[in-house]
């Protein structure tokens, strides 16, 4: 049995969508990062980095969104969370997954926590972050012009990850009007049954 420690509409949404796609029972434990619950001792014992997502499984505990997504794809090949190892799309999906986790996600962390980069000039840190995010979105805008999803014409885990981050754009008033392909793409992802179901659950959890 999996237990996902999540905070609504954060990067844990990507793992939540993957669990929903696997379609086996799982438990959700809400850690509200806006209420600083990720700094409480019980959660720190699970993840000393004080961040969601955390996945608990029979043999242990796993952190890092991209690592969890890969782990789940290996344990549940039937869910097709990643392209098969011998396919051309596999390398593209891996490239995107790592790019999202080591490049785009940290740009967003500049917007949420600029003081972690510089206590003296948080405004400048945010401004640079916004520009970097726009530059990165331009790359995805171009990529998605010729294909339905990030790694080709099938949806895989990196799509869940990029989709989760799309919610943060509104939060920081980053306008998608110049990215028409991405707008359509985010709509497409939101309409996948597992994503629609997770959005509903996270909305309910957020209001609780
Ligand atoms: N490297 C981690 C980053 C996780 C992360 O940044 N989680 C955010 C939510 S999207 C969080 O828990 N933020 C609270 C904080 O950093 O204080 C991963 O890839 O899972």
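^ structure tokens above, recovered residues below v
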């Amino acid at each position: 049995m999996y237990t996902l420690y999540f905070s609504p509409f954060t990067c844990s949404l990507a793992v939540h969508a993957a669990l929903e796609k696997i379609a086996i029972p799982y438990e959700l434990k809400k850690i509200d990062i806006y209420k600083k619950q990720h700094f409480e001792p019980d959660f720190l014992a699970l993840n000393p980095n004080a961040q969601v997502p955390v996945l608990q499984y029979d043999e242990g505990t796993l952190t890092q969104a991209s690592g969890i997504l890969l782990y789940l794809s290996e344990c549940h090949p039937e869910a097709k969370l990643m392209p098969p190892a011998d396919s051309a799309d596999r390398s593209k999906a891996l490239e995107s997954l790592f790019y999202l986790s080591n490049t785009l996600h940290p740009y967003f962390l500049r917007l949420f926590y600029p003081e972690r980069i510089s206590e003296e000039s948080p405004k400048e840190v945010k401004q640079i972050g916004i520009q970097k995010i726009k530059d990165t979105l331009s790359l995805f805008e171009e990529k998605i012009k010729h294909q339905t999803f990030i790694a080709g014409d099938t949806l895989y885990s990196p799509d869940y990850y990029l989709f989760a981050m799309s919610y943060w754009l509104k939060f920081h008033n980053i306008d998608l009007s110049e990215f028409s392909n991405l707008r359509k793409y985010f709509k497409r992802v939101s309409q996948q049954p597992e994503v629609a179901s997770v959005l509903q659950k996270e909305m309910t959890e957020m209001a609780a």
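The domain at 88-192 is CATH 1.20.1050.10 (Glutathione S-transferase Yfyf (Class Pi); Chain A, domain 2).
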